[in-house]
């Protein structure tokens, strides 16, 4: 069984998602695609000035995963700047809505992404799950609340 995707938490949506050099025509331009979580990694490290551990914690990933994400992001941006390519910000494995859940039937604790995951326990498939940080069904309450 393949390892499930670990969603990267992103706190800021980009205001603009496409950048091109002023001296290039859009129809002839090659693009570099920067993932949303790569942009978030650069924002946390370079603008917020957080250390690697703090960045990884905010994105809900390991420090090594954060390091891999930011290295990829910086390489893509550098290639675009040096080679005169456009930068398109799109895609990735990210979410704005992650909560830690607990199954009432088997006591399994897991992270759930509201935008993409089914509302059931991945261990026993029960729909009797609760947010581990709040009382009540997460699918009704946590979408509107931020658990940090």
Automatic annotation (TrEMBL):
Keyword DNA-binding in annotation: yes
Q: Which InterPro entries match?
A: UPF0251
| Family recorded in the similarity comment | Belongs to the UPF0251 family.
| Annotated signal sequence range | none
Q: What is this protein called?
A: UPF0251 protein SAMN02745207_00053
Query: What keywords were assigned to this record?
Result: DNA-binding
Q: Which HAMAP family match?
A: UPF0251
Q: What is the source species?
A: Clostridium grantii DSM 8605
- Please, which domain of life does this record's source organism belong to? Bacteria
A GO molecular-function term, please? DNA binding
């Amino acid at each position: 069984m393949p390892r499930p995707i670990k969603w990267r938490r992103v706190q800021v949506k980009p205001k603009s998602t496409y950048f091109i050099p002023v001296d290039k025509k859009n129809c002839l331009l090659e693009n570099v695609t920067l993932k949303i979580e790569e942009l978030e990694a650069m924002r946390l490290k370079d603008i917020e000035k957080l250390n690697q551990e703090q960045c990884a914690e905010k994105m809900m990933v390991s420090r090594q995963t954060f390091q891999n994400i930011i290295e990829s992001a910086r390489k893509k941006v550098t290639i675009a700047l040096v080679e005169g390519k456009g930068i398109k910000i799109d895609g990735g494995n990210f979410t704005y809505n992650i909560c830690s859940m607990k199954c009432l039937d088997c006591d399994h604790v897991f992270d759930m992404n509201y935008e993409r995951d089914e509302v059931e326990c991945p261990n026993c498939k029960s729909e009797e799950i609760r947010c581990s940080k709040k009382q009540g069904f997460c699918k009704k309450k946590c979408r509107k609340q931020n658990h940090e």
